[in-house]
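Researcher: Sequence of DUF192 domain-containing protein follows. Predict its structure.
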Amino acid sequence: MALERVWQALLAVVLVLLVGVVLVQAGYVSAPWHIDHGEVRVLDDRSEPKAVIDVEVADTRQEQYTGLSDHDSLEPGAGMLFVHSSEDDRTYVMREMDFPIDIVFIGADREITGIEHARAPEPSEDGESLQYTGRAKWVLEVPRGYANETGMAVGDEVEIEYE
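Model: Prediction complete. Tokens:
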């Protein structure tokens, strides 16, 4: 009887581990030990960088849902890059955000298609109603004002590298 319980417990542990692996592989849950990083460069008309941003990469559903809401702030030159499988109309919200950001929409051709300046939600707001839409394959979030400070503009070419 005791041996049977040990086997049942072992089977339960193996099943939980298998479900966890499947969820990570399918992109529903990110592996807690790994954060993808990369670099985004926005180029001027001479193909010189006008902005270089070190980014965390959000390429799973869970990472994209959480976004920057678990950050207290962003330093200039830091951001988050959201990676989508194809270009489409994308709507981003300010869910549980504590600070304002610029949202930069980047098309499949790696050109900026739009820039939104998003305010932080008021204490009485949850941020879901603060919606910003643009056409993009990639979406870059940086500190509010950074896009203007560096001269980012619609039509700028963008180089994207990430793990």
